[in-house]
Amino acid sequence: MIPIILQEMRKVAGRRGSFWSAIGVTLALIATIVVASIIVRQVQDDTTGGKEALDLYTGLIFVPLVLFVLVASLGGAWDFANGTFRYLVVTGRPPWQLVATTMAGVILTSLTVTAPYVLAGIIQALVFPRDGTEAASGGDLAAFVWWCFALVTFWSFVALSVGVTLRSSGAGIAVALVLFFGGFPIAALVALLSETVAELLPNIAILRVGGEGDQSLTLALVATISWLIAFGATAIVRAERSEY
Amino acid sequence: MSDEAIIEVRGLTKAFGRRIAVNNVNLTVPRGTCFGFLGPNGAGKTTMMRMLLGLARPTSGVALVRGIDVRSARQAALARVGAIVEEPRFYPYLSGRANLEIWAAYWGGPAPARIPGLLDRVGLGGRGADKVKNYSQGMRQRLGLARALLNDPELLILDEPTNGLDVQAMQEFRQMVREMVEREGRTVFISSHQLHELERICDSVAIVNQGTVVIEGPMQALIADGEQGITLDCEDEDGVRRAVTAFPGVRDIQRKADGSLFINVPPTRETLIALNRALVGAGLPVAQISRSQQSLEERYMAITGESGPSGPGEVTK
Question: Which of A143, A75, A134 is nearest to A104 (CA)?
């Protein structure tokens, strides 16, 4: 299975426009944060380290995440939209397995691109340390790593599932981005009716999994996993039931 | 299923809503042969091939490939099957070699090691590093054939594999198919619009029309069963008609698109001599006279009632 997943990662990396945009935005964001932090240090004789650095990186991960959503939805739709999925099916492997390996390849690629960002956050938190309660503990670092990777995995999975389900690169990207950006206003509207239900919406649930807010982690985890199962199952059922 | 059959189809039907694309087809493809599958556009050829490859689900009936039911055990049935369906599709932003490496990873086993040899075999040895988006249509067809051979298939299912090939590539393809059948013992199940090419490479053939197999059998028998007669080069059609009307055995006279006249009569040597005498005796200027039989294309036209896919000559009476 590993050679197949590596080839799936190669397919993602080969779509240079989306892939290098994701890398470029991630690296540019790291550079911007580092430069801004150095300037702040010189001007205000202050540092952006410890928990403050982790918070900064946590908040800004949504910038490259937009590109990861694009990469993943494209990854999900590409084989269907371009007729190559038919030739993958001819290898005899069941469609669910083909979708699963594509998911693994796309998510691993996104996590690989996220890794430098996470590493930069950790380094900055430790290089520009804070004292006392503002210092980044091992638990803070672990929570930061978990949050970044969980968020990227969740949204890559959702976007890829949308791409597989819709089978059109353009439509897949559009719907995935609407889910990504539109989730918060939708959650705000739902919250007017029921805050409990709003907590179960995918973009809110994954935030709670990352430790945002005071709501139950268990409930957030159940909601997040349920959404992953729902999106994944829809994609796999679509792939299994289709003809090529 | 007989030991000799690599494809056996029984009562295979595929309906899209109210439209029946493949209608109760029965077909047996002998192992180790090149089998042509012919028919006009929309006759159900590609749908049939897709069902054989598990890409489409039959509405009813059974398709056995290598003796295995494709529907219930697709992976086992296709383990040694290669295919080109409709047109070869690739990742155009990757090289030809990289594309083959992707499919080789899915096949596993010795497939990755076969890539260099296959690129050489299809004439892309020097272009394997080029991106597929820079390939011509013919090169993509060749790469498609290389991909179809990755898993060392016993059976190749090729849907219009000669599309985009130039004359030389077509000749190479013909040789390659015969080599695969005769030297390597593979079976090739092929559809093509190039009927004259199929006539040269196929051992057996089935003609399908409106979702139904109209006729099936060895190529030579199919052609031999067709109209036979005498072709002559003579501009005076009325004169020829007058001269041979009373000639025994003449069924009709047709003017072909190439300008020659076809006399539907048993083409024995004696008939040819007697007919030649009659024409000369009538003072008709005959430039050439010879025995002839229907080509696959003419036979195809007669059976399907349509013009051949590659644009044959029109026959007038």
Answer: A75
- The DSSP call for residue A137 is P
How far is it, in rounded angstroms, from Cα A192 to Cα A187? 9
Q: pLDDT higher for B58 or B40?
A: B58
B105 in contact with A, Cβ within 8 Å:
yes
Given A15, A84, A92, which is nearest B90 (Cβ)? A84
Query: H or E stretch including B254?
Result: strand B252-255
Of A4, A82, A84, the CB nearest to B105: A4
> Mutate which of B91, B95, B189 to disrupt the A interface (most A C-beta within 10 Å)?
B91
Q: Which CATH class is domain B227-293?
A: alpha beta
What is the domain partition of chain B in residue ranges? Answer: 5-80+153-223, 227-293
Which chain A residues are closer than 8 Å to B22 by Cβ? none
Report CA-CA distances (Å) from B141 to A46, B124, B133.
64, 11, 13
- pLDDT tens for each residue of B251-272: 888 888 788 998 988 888 888 8
Distance from CA of B80 to the nearest CA of A (A): 9
The residue among B193, B201, B223 whose CA lies nearest residue B45 is B193
pTM: 0.84
Instruction: Give the closest-approach CA distance of A18 to chain B in angstroms.
Output: 13
According to CATH, the superfamily of the domain at B5-80+153-223 is: P-loop containing nucleotide triphosphate hydrolases (3.40.50.300)
